[in-house]
Structure formats: C-alpha cells, structure tokens
Amino acid sequence: MDGPGGLFNGRVELRHLRAFEAVARLRSFTGAAVELGITQPALSRTVQQLEDALGVALLDRSSRHVETTAAGRAFLDHVERVLAELARGFDAVRRQSSLRLGFSWLLPDPWAQDTVARFERATGITVSLVRTDDALGAVQQGKVDVAVVRGRVTSRSVRVVHLFDEARVAVCSVHSALAHRSEMDWDEVPRWPLVVNTASGTTGPWSWPAGAGPEKIVETTNFDEWIESVAADRGIGVIPDVAVRRNIHPGVHFIALRGAPDSPVCLAFPPRPRNAVLPRFAEAAAASAREV
Fold it and tell me: Residues in domain HTH lysR-type (predicted)?
C-alpha cells in the first residue's frame, strides 16, 4: 500500500484537488465541469481517481444534489487551504515577474496601450517598456523578451508575428520648400534627399526598385538623429502616421502620401522563449490588433 508520500508521488495531482473542490463547492458535476472547462465524464474520472488514491469516498452521488461525505468534508477543509495558499504564492510570484517589451521609437497607438493593459489585467504581470535603438537586435541578444518591430523582418533567428499595417506620411522641415504641401505622391519622394534611420527605419533605398530610389541618402542611426536631421532640412523622411498624432517635433511638417505602401508592424521574439508568459502576451497583442 502507498504511504502518504506515495499518494502524492504521481497519483494525486493538483488537477484532482481542483476538480474535487469545484464539485464540492458547487454540489454539481455539471456546473464544476463548465467552470473548469472540461467535459463531465473527464471530471468524473478525475474525482474517481482521487477517491481511489485515498481509498475513501469523498462525494455522495446518490441524492439529487452531490453532497460531500464526512471524509469529504474533512478533506475539503485541507484542500481549500492548500489551493488558497497556492493562489497566494502565484500572486506573489506574478507581482515580482515582468515581461520586457522592446521598442525603438513611438509605440503604435492605441494598440500598445490596449495590449499592455489587457495583458497586465489578465496575468498580474508587469510589462517593462525598454527603449532601444535596435529592437530586433535586443531580442537576439536577450536584452528584451519581445519587441515591436516595424518594416519587413528577414532574420531567421527570431519568430515574427504580423499584427497590422500602418500608413506612411512624409516629414519635412518647416523651412523646407515642401512645407506648404498637404499631400504628395509616393513617386515624388525620390526627388528629394531622404533621411534614413539605418537601425530601425521603415523607409530607405530598399523601399523602391533598384535604380528608382532617391539619389541622395542621409544616414542616421536612431530616431533622435533622424528627426533632428529632418528638422534641420537635411532632407525629408517617411514615417508611419502614428507620428502625426504624437506631435514629435515642433520643427517638422507632415505631408500625406498618396500611393505609399503600408508599413507592417510585427512582434519579434526568440523561437524558444525563456519567459513562460510570452505566449499570453502574444495572444493579448493579437486580440488588440484585431480590434485596431
């Protein structure tokens, strides 16, 4: 016969305790099955396994409503304490846990705010926002758990999930000859020097067929350098339209682009993520993206 240690060495699992507690509390296999999200036959088998392991009947199934036996009532007191203590332990760990979300510049709105709020409410885990010039590189180096990446991602060292597309707008200095324009065609952009963020920019010479892009490229390595170069009238830039809503710089003017290809927004994370809650964040991100 199994001793006390043997009972819990593979024969009695947490699912058995949760199944018994739900049935005893609701006095119904049907209601407990719905609450636990399993079928009633599977629930009945789980409770029977627990009774077989303990060698005693915990539930009286003979009446119209399921009732606990004397042994069941005594055992239920212990089970409730165990589950309550376990829940407190989970909460304590969640409060100390976090997920690092990397981004190189303006997070898409309202997607980012909705995703973070949805995830934190569902898990109790804090999302730490990590500003980095190279969000994709931060994922590859393990500096963040997941990153928001704009543009096409060709690296095979990360897993990429497409969320949605953003419209593009042109940006010029308030002193530019284009500052009076409210619209321009995508095909006009190559006529002007183009300021490019080589680390995380969404538009560059690669955005046009070979030989059709801008003749002059002004390279920068981060968002701050990029926006200051545009404001200094060293060239024009092209950026997702989230920037229009965020008032990024008093020295620039936005111009709507006709015929510009959309800019994809993706989540990038390691193929084998170390953070166990990452799949739940991806689910929250996808749900928010569908609403956007």
Answer: 12-69
